[in-house]
Write a structure and sequence with these properties.
The protein is an all-alpha fold. It folds into two domains: about 1-55; about 55-293, Orthogonal Bundle (MetI-like fold), CATH 1.10.3720. Helices cover about 70% and strands about 0% of the residues. The protein is built from 14 helices and no strands. It has helices at about 10-35, 40-45, 55-65, 65-95, 105-115, 120-130, 150-160, 165-170, 175-190, 190-205, 210-215, 225-230, 240-250, 255-290. The longest helix is centred in the last third of the chain and has 36 residues, at about 255-290. The radius of gyration is 25 Å and the shape is globular. It starts with 7 loop residues before the first helix and ends with a helix.
Amino acid sequence: MKRRKASAFDVFNVLFMLLMMLVMIYPLLNVLATSLSRPSDITAGLVSWYPRGFNLVGYQYIIEDGQLFIGYRNTILYAAVGTLLTLTLTSLAAYALTHKELVGRRVLTFYWAVTMFFGGGLVPTYLVIKDLGLLDTFLVMVLPGCVGAYTLFVFRSFMLALPSELMEAAYIDGAGEWRVWSTIVLPLSKPLLATYALFTIVGHWNSWFNAMLYLKNANLYPLQLYLRRIVVQNDLSGTYADSASGALIASGAMTPQNAQMAAIVLTILPIMLIYPYIQKYFVKGVMIGSLKG
């Protein structure tokens, strides 16, 4: 079989993609190198993409600061509970909207469609959450965004494409709506549920803005808000004694950059380890949203 010769466009495409890969991977290498380098080399600006020396004091400080593990705990809980609520409520609402005999179906559909284009605004949303008594509570991180209009319509479109004969046979056998939803619709929607579960988990893992607005109790902070406190606000105080970071910096054992970059590495490490195995589901989710209409 004769092989096709590489065209100029093929060469350009490969070189361009290699350049983009380097551009994207360099910041990650710099973060890792800075977290492991000697304080003197960091201060002198000698660190680029590989470590200068080997220094784990930054990691030691972050690990001994109990806020890291509190952030992990809270983020895992928010992701687990939030994903369960999102999938349950969204699939229930989408299943209801597939019934043409539902009273007010068009009105409900229009109501949800409007929210895709017009938001309530930051201040009104804050006031509603305050009036509901959700400020500084666990529920404020999982309830407000548990049903999204776009996700709802994707679920609805997917369920409309399911074989109606199966549900009609279940109705004939005496099954009610709850049983049809739980024993027929959900099992047939497993690919959709798995894909959007991953999207929701990653969304909760990266969430920090709502926590910054609605949470004051540090014991409820998610991981990303803890990371923001250290990296953006340059605040190395936490449950670990404030004097500890000052003493380490004064002794030359670490710089603030050591701790900041170590916190970034420890925060993104779980997603980096898992993402190669779940990447295909993200692609599948995008295709579901584009093909189901």
